Each structure stands twice: as structure tokens, then as C-alpha cells.
Amino acid sequence: MADLSAFPITRKWPAKDPSVIQLYSLPTPNGQKASIALEELGLAYEAHRVGLDDANVKSPEFLSLNPNNKIPAIIDPDGPDGQPIGLFESGAILIYLAEKTGRLLGETPADRYHAIQWVMWQMGGLGPMLGQLGFFVKFAGAEIEDPRPRERYINEAKRLLKVLDTSLEGRDWIIGEFSIADIAICPWLNGLAFYEALDLVGWGDLKNVPAYLERFYNRPAAERGRNIPPM
């Protein structure tokens, strides 16, 4: 039995089975990336619900694993050289899980870098921009009278969606075959409906992206992972 006592987070969220991957998350777009990857890869894991309130993500126990106080985070009891490893940042988790299993990074070294390229695109562009769009359209930012922030993020969302739409021409998945890049991208696309922003970003004018998103959530693992741990 693995010993996870060196990880203080396990005091607040005890592991029932310390021999499997411990996931600390919530089914937000970033949280879904981790749970869907685990489901797609068929890895044994245990999901712990971490609320976004300060009592959870800013607790000493959670900060001991992720000092950036964001979900998701994981502990893998069977990390490099057989030693436990804790990780945060959803993109890093995706790359780690793919490399651990030798899956979802394409067939060739070039595929691997193309997949990582699109993960970085999501991490640096699509996720942050759509998150800000949601803030200024649905949440507290919607109360700001100055229209410029809202317009900026709507326009940037449109630009990024056009980049994706063009890049999907003639292919089902962003690097040609299903990969962690698709797992990184699609949960954020799905968030546009929650933000009530589909019309604002011209969703109906996109040629390839809507079918791409539908194809993604038609995968059984994606459907399972989209609500783990349950809200």
C-alpha cells in the first residue's frame, strides 16, 4: 500500500485507496480536462471534490499541493522511479498522464510536439480568453458599464475560434488523431453555452467547431468525465 502521508492534502481529503491516483478537482473546464484524461486512459483514480471557496482552495492542505490555489491537482503514488509525485496545472497533468501511459500524444515525435503545441495554445489563449469572456458576460464583470473589456474578450474569442475552425478543416481531431490537445480544448468550448455567449462569438457561423465539440462529448469517456467529481 502506497504511503501518501508526506502530502498534507490527504489530511483534509483522505485517500480511500492510496494505491491509485488521487484527483482533487471540480468539473469546471480545467477540472474536466483531468477527469476526462483519466477516463480516456483507463487509469485507476479517486476523485475528491474541492470547492472553489477559500475554505477549500486556500486551505493549508490544498496549498501544500498547489500553491496557486486552483483545481485540478493530482497525486500519483506510482510516479517517476516508482515514487509518489504531486502535480498541479491542468496542462502539465495532461502531458504527464499521456507520457505515463504512452498514449494520446500521437504516433510520432512530430505528433507529440503538435499535440503539446495545441495544449499550450489552449492554456495560453483559449482558456484565459474564454474565462474572461465569461466574467464580463455572465458574472460580476457584466455589471461594468464600460463596454471595452467585454468587446475585447468577445473579439478575441471570435479570433481564437476562427483559428481553431480553420485548423480543423478536413480532420476530426486537431492533430489528426485524438489526443490530449482535444481534451484540453473541448471543455473550454463547452463553457461557452454555460456563459450564454454562443451567439456573441458567432458559434453558428463556424464550419467545423460545433461538430468537433459534439464528436468529443459523444466519446463515452468524455461523457463520464464531464461531471467528476459531481458538482
UniProtKB/TrEMBL annotation:
Domain GST N-terminal: 18-105
PROSITE patterns to which the protein is assigned, alphabetical: GST_CTER (PS50405), GST_NTER (PS50404)
Alphabetical list of SUPFAM superfamilies matching this protein: GST C-terminal domain-like (SSF47616), Thioredoxin-like (SSF52833)
Stored CDD domains: GST_C_Ure2p_like (cd03178), GST_N_Ure2p_like (cd03048)
Occurrences of domain GST C-terminal (ranges): 108-231
Family membership: Belongs to the GST superfamily.
Cited PANTHER family: DISULFIDE-BOND OXIDOREDUCTASE YFCG, GLUTATHIONE S-TRANSFERASE-RELATED
Protein name listed in UniProt: GST-like protein
